[in-house]
Structures are given as C-alpha cells and as structure tokens.
Amino acid sequence: MIKDILIMGAGAIGCLFGGLIAKFGHKVILIGRDWQVKKIRDNGLHIYNSDDFYVYPEAYTSPIESDLILMTVKAYDTEKSAKSLLIKEDSVVLSIQNGINNEEIIARIIGLNHVIGGTTSHGALLLGPGEVRHTGYGKTVIGEMDGMVTERVREVKKIFDDSKIDTIITSDIKKELWNKLIINVGINAISAITGLENGYIYKINNLSEISKKAVREAINVAKKVNINVDLDEEDVLMVAKQTERNRSSMLQDLDRGKKTEIDGINGEIVKIGRKYMLDCDVNETLYHLIKAKEIYREGIT
Question: Which domains does the chain have, with CATH numbers?
Fold first, then answer.
C-alpha cells in the first residue's frame, strides 16, 4: 500500500503534482535544492489554478525512503538523482520526465522491478521556489515497462485520479514516451528559440511549417526503430493550440539561464537518425540553435 509519496525535483511539474496530490490528503515529500526547500518550508507550496491553494508538504534536500517516488528532475539529472534514492523492497519509482531513456537509466541503477514509465501533458509554469501556475490540463499515462497491468499501477492511477490528475494505464508505455517526445520535438525548441508561447506555433504559419517538418523527421526515426506512434504533425499543432498559454519547459529553462533538455529531445532524434542515415536536417538545425543560446547565456570567452 502506498502511503508516502516522494517528489524528486521541485520544479514546475514536481511542484504541480506534489501540490495536487497533497491537497487531496496524501503524504507528500518534496526533494529540492537548499533555496527551494527553505521557501517551501517557510511558506508552503502555492498552486495557482482555478482553486489557487496552498499545501504544506515535507521538504528536504536529500531523499528519504518512500513507497512511491515520482522522478520529475531534468533528464540530464536522472542518473545522479537515481543514485541518491533510498529504495525499499517494494518502492516504486515512476518517471514523469521528458525523453525516452529515463526509465532505462533508473532501472540500470535500482532494478527494473522498481520502475514504472509515465508521461504527462499537463502544463506548469514555475513562478518561483514553491510557486507554480497550472497553465494547461492534459492527460497522464503510466504503465509497466513489460506492458502488464499490475496492482501497483492501478494504485498509482487511483491516487492520481483522486488528486484530479486524470490518468490512463497503457500496455505500451514505450510508444507513449515516443508520442510525448514527438510532441516536444514539434514545440519546445521552436518556442524556446522564438521566446513565444506554444499557441503561436499553431497561429503563425512559418512556425507551423518548421514544426511539421521536425515532426515528420521524428516519426520516420520512430518507424525505423519499430515504434508506431499514433500521432502526426497536425496532432502536434493541436497540442500547441490546446496549450496556447503555456511557455514550454525549454523556454522556461532559457528564461532562467539553465541548461535545456535539447539533447534528449531534438538531439535524440538526430542521434538515432544519423545511425540509420535518415534526414533530420530540421531537428539538427533546431538542436544547434538551442545549443548556441545555451553557449551565449553561459558567456562566450
């Protein structure tokens, strides 16, 4: 039975999920950096949505043993974070991250039997430590890596559903991770390069065309590795429309002068595409433009 829920990463999605779950009576423990933890301990966690509420979860800088661990850190921090976890015999680690490799990395460190895959299309904007705006409602999909529908997956779904996080159980989580990757391919880098909210990718034809080409390249790569995604470029544009007020996570990273997850998004498509000699020119261009922005923000010497 799941009693303690640890959120590994006090960023936008971590705070959103932690806040919603805590609001409905579950014990939540947030793990973050010193300055994040201090603010949450002093002022609580403030979620701005239709309710606009505060909750007061426990907050620490290092993980403690927990029944359910939600991994919400950036993909480039997955390995380091997984190595820091304190795992009980029946602990479950659910990744709700961008990218298609996080579950594999976590499993390599703590064992595949502890790992569940997941993805979400909820939008969240981090306003400051412990303050997050819920910018878009979406679906959350979870599933065992082997496709089995287990009791623990059902229990996680119930916790999420009870917390107003509508959740679907899938028997093909790998396909769902690729679906999310392709959505990110068509939105995040374009949003980050232009500095625009998601909706403008749908509204401005020039940006729509770039998105479509990047998505078509990504779908070709997915097919090459035997992943039959169930979306196309028009579906991605509809996601941009549905989340029109959202600032993509990559744009939020650049706004804060932080490293982005470009390597695990457009960069991942380029990496796999090169292996099979597929055309990934648009994704490669987006990748290099984001890398240039990162270098500029770090300071050119």
Answer: 4-170 (3.40.50.720), 174-298 (1.10.1040.10)
